[in-house]
Amino acid sequence: MQQQGEGDASQRIARISAHLNPHKPQMEGSCNLETENCRAKGGAPGFKVAILGAAGGIGQPLSLLMKMNPLVSVLHLYDVANTPGVTSDISHMDTSAVVRGFLGPQQLENALTGMDLIIIPAGVPRKPGMTRDDLFNINAGIVKTLCEGIAKSCPKAIVNIISNPVNSTVPIAAEVFKKSGTYDPRRLLGVTMLDVVRANTFVAEVLGLDPREVDVPVVGGHAGVTILPLLSQMKPPCSFTSEETTYLTSRIQNGGTEVVEAKAGAGSATLSMAYAAVKFADACLRGLRGDADVIKCAFVPSVVTELPFFASKVRLGRNGIEEIYPLGLLNEFERVGLEMAKKELAGSIEKGISFAMK
Ligand SMILES: NC(=O)c1ccc[n+]([C@@H]2O[C@H](COP(=O)([O-])OP(=O)(O)OC[C@H]3O[C@@H](n4cnc5c(N)ncnc54)[C@H](O)[C@@H]3O)[C@@H](O)[C@H]2O)c1
Ligand SMILES: O=C(O)C[C@H](O)C(=O)O
User: Fold this and answer.
1) 141: annotated binding-site residue?
2) Which ipTM score applies to this complex?
């Protein structure tokens, strides 16, 4: 005789088995375990995050780290290649975020709809001998297309742009959003967190401190001389000899090139970038949650200088950027650096705007 409930359970298992293809990750359009037949529905409170370029060198470790973030309830992984494998792999992690994969432009809309935060590491990286601006011809179009998708499908999302050249791709994104009538400058942020991470590490090395106790603001932009560490404003306050200042400024400005050369043709920073991107994304999510005093450096639409975009300290909140801090007191070395940074930034910003207006 059948025990009470046994029939229900075996029917449920049979129903699930019929739908379950263990070789397929939960991909858009795939016939995986039907959600209505699955008891683990997710639905934990939290934010919905999409990563565009999720199968790349940055995208993969970034996806891994975002899956570990308790503030994330849903994680959408979008790329034009290899998302099924990455999605399958990441989705086996026993953390609460529900992971879904999306492959190719026809799935972009579904990847973006309903998202609170979009992180964009899509695009080609540098090889030795190249500048970030050498990536413009390929990456400008990629960022433009993805931002057109965001304008259409999730215009209220916070957007974190990692794709280089950041000094031009952020202005491109702003123009796309303006054109579509969805532009909110509080929600657009170029990710320069890696410059801060490097500055903290290199400064801590010189001073013999724990890098976790060091906080160096880095302003300007994200390429060469536009990367301007403000050592005079670091926490804890410390003084440097002029040799130390020159060494540290140059090492921070050339940190990306240091990695590109060490990788010898196999790309640029991916692991430290994923770490930095997650640090920054987590700050954006904490801001959205309403946490007080979430302050980070980012390349944002700005009136801090005469330029329309500039990296500086920003306070993050429920609407994205709630406050942009002025540069504060600079020493003579930093004032000279600021003039050089502004000159180069002006050209990169203009290049991005002209491209997007075409
Ligand atoms: N902001 C920073 O501090 C920082 C740091 C490191 C790297 N970057 C930049 O990040 C970008 C990515 O670097 P990476 O090492 O991950 O490169 P990668 O080549 O390893 O990965 C890029 C990924 O983007 C995907 N992609 C290409 N076109 C796409 C599109 N239209 N839509 C969605 N995905 C697309 C590719 O398929 C690939 O998976 C580069 O432009 C690099 O210069 C920025
Ligand atoms: O240097 C690069 O090309 C990648 C990135 O911008 C970095 O700073 O590591």
Assistant:
1) no
2) 0.99
Q: How far, in Å, from the CA of 339 to the mean position of ligand 2?
A: 22
Query: Which one, of 273, 340, 299, lies nearest residue 192 by Cα?
Result: 299
Ligand nearest to the CA of 138: 1
- CB of 76 closer than 8 Å to CB of 51: yes
Distance CA 11, CA 33 (A): 15
What distance in angstroms lies between residue 268's CA and the mean position of ligand 2's atoms?
Answer: 6
Active site residue 19: no
Percentage of residues of the chain with pLDDT beyond 90:
87
Neighbour-count burial of 45, counting CB atoms closer than 10 A to its CB (0-12 exposed, 13-18 middle, 19+ buried): exposed
Structure tokens, 352: 């991005």
Q: Tell me, what's the pLDDT at 26?
A: 78
Band of residue 30 on the pLDDT scale cut at 50, 70, 90: low
Q: Mean pLDDT across the chain, nearest whole number?
A: 92
What is the 229 CA–ligand 2 centroid distance (Å)?
A: 16
Residue 256 Cβ < 6 Å to ligand 2:
yes
Q: What predicted TM-score, i.e. pTM, was given to this entire model?
A: 0.93
Q: Give me the helices (H) in 28-107, please.
A: 59-67, 83-91
Rounded to an integer, what distance in angstroms lies between the CA atom of residue 237 and that of residue 357? 44
Q: Is 218 in the pocket of ligand 2 (CB under 6 A)?
A: no
3-class secondary-structure state, position 227: strand
**Residue ranges around ligand 1 (CB below 6 Å):** 52-53, 55-59, 79-81, 121-126, 135, 139, 142, 145-146, 162-164, 166, 191, 194, 222, 267-270, 273
Ligand nearest to the CA of 60: 1
Residue 56 is labelled as binding a ligand: yes
Q: Is 130 annotated as a binding residue?
A: no
Residue nearest to atom 11 of ligand 1 (CA): 163
The yes-or-no verdict on residue 33 having pLDDT over 60 is no
Chain centroid to Cα 274, Å, comes to 8
One-letter identity of residue 283: A
Residue 45 confidence (pLDDT) = 80
Ligand nearest to the Cα of 77, by number: 1
In this predicted structure, what is the pLDDT of residue 275?
Answer: 98
Residue 1 pLDDT class (50, 70, 90 cuts): very low
